[in-house]
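Worked example 3 (structure in, sequence out).
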């Protein structure tokens, strides 16, 4: 395999460049990024057929939910809400075996790769057998899901979820939640076992996800986070924080504080943290997240699907907050759709145009892609998000022949990518120096899809 790629035009850390030569080492780390390369240096170098941009990190996923996308879109109870959707989700997940979880995750991860994601944060809470009994290996489910990512070649930051209670104030778990149940020691055991199993793969990282303030208590939270950082100092910590008004109200009833305030009052939240669905914030909470450099994990299509609300994006960016996007419940597997909806939500809210941009970078498409790629990589604890020496060779080659890119150059390529039409403009995708998608396809595509279809037929027949 040649470890070199030439691109006529590529988006580097300091902007668009021409005649770019990228080189990487056997571990998939970029060792050389040169501009204006002379033609005679290019013998035996792989040539990108379109513009090259950094790959996108998908910072929030519950892989098994891919299989129920579209199953909860029928009007029934007039009070249909996040909480009624959650009941449908629980009844579905009660049937999933380790093999099913693997098959579903593999299909999802392949779809994510094909659309330009190069890594995913798997917020994984389906740990145990139905009823709550542990599998022979307590990390069985985690290993299946990470195994699916390594089979497909998507970078993964696996985030085993600490889930111990059914509501604020240590309420007991419900029947459907028994599969999620762990204490701090149990989750640390899963983290350690999963890390060991994939220790030699540079595209696998392991962190921790305390599910939410309603699912843990303070002692557990402290113990799990310090246990994680005792093992790996820079490992990421993700938490669902303020997705629903009811969650905020319940937190106030329990503690007298709103969830983000509670978290910052009791934990040392820094750039290793990622706050998922920081949707309902006061200005003060918004500013605390921004100042801490924790990543705000925004999931626009899922937040729209569930009727959560809109993230206060303009204030957060004004305060130099770090953010990224996730596909969460997988009603979409496409970063373009997340970014477009994020900008459109703000336009509809403020009744203005071109909001997620700045004087220095007027292009909305380039600002969205660039900031989300960097913030997402930070959230996944992954040296990625831009094409620069020392970063992972994670990149996307766009389809330079596509009509939507005709006459587009520089940042207008990204404006076209995000805002022109619904056809996928991703042609080739590389993760850690390995081509995973070529000409829009994965080498295992048919087998992965057929296995997913038979898994679905089985699950829906039960
Ligand atoms: Zn989530």
């Amino acid at each position: 395999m040649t470890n070199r790629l030439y691109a006529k035009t590529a988006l580097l850390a300091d902007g668009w460049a021409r005649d770019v030569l990228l080189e990487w080492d056997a571990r998939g780390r970029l060792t050389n990024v040169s501009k204006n390369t002379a033609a005679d240096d290019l013998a035996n170098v792989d040539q990108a057929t379109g513009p090259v941009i950094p790959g996108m990190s998908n910072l929030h996923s519950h892989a098994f939910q891919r299989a129920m996308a579209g199953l909860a879109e029928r009007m029934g109870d007039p009070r249909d809400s996040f909480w009624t959707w959650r009941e449908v989700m629980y009844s579905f997940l009660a049937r999933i075996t380790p093999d099913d979880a693997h098959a579903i995750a593999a299909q999802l991860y392949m779809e994510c790769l094909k659309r330009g994601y190069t890594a995913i944060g798997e917020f994984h809470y389906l740990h145990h057998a139905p009823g709550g009994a542990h599998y022979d290996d307590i990390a069985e489910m985690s290993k299946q899901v990470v195994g699916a990512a390594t089979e497909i070649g998507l970078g993964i930051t696996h985030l085993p979820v600490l889930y111990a209670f059914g509501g604020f104030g240590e309420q007991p778990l419900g029947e459907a939640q028994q599969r999620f149940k762990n204490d701090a020691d149990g989750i640390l055991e899963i983290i350690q076992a999963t890390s060991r199993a994939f220790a030699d793969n540079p595209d696998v990282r392991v962190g921790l996800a305390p599910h939410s303030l309603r699912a843990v208590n303070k002692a557990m939270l402290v113990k799990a986070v310090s246990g994680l950082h005792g093992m790996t100092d820079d490992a990421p910590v993700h938490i669902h924080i303020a997705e629903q008004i009811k969650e905020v109200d319940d937190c106030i009833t329990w503690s007298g504080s709103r969830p983000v305030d509670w978290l910052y009052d009791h934990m040392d939240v820094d750039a290793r943290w990622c706050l998922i669905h920081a949707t309902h914030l006061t200005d003060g909470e918004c500013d605390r997240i921004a100042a801490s450099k924790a990543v705000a994990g925004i999931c626009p299509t899922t937040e729209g699907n569930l009727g959560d609300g809109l993230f206060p994006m303009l204030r957060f960016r004004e305060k130099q907050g770090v953010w990224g996007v996730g596909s969460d419940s997988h009603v979409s597997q496409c970063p373009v759709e997340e970014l477009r909806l994020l900008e459109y939500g703000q336009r509809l809210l403020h009744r203005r145009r071109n909001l997620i941009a700045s004087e220095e970078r007027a292009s909305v498409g380039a600002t969205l892609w660039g900031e989300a790629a960097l913030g997402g990589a930070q959230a996944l604890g992954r040296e990625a998000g831009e094409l620069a020496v020392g970063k992972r060779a994670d990149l996307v080659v766009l389809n330079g022949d596509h009509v939507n890119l005709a006459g587009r150059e520089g940042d207008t390529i990204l404006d076209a990518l995000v805002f022109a039409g619904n056809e996928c403009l991703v042609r080739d995708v590389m993760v850690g120096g390995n081509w995973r998608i070529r000409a829009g396809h994965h080498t295992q595509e048919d087998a992965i899809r057929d296995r997913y279809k038979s898994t679905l037929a089985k699950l829906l027949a039960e």
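Notes: Residues 98-114 form the longest helix (17 residues). Residues 54-379 form a domain with the TIM Barrel fold (CATH 3.20.20.140).
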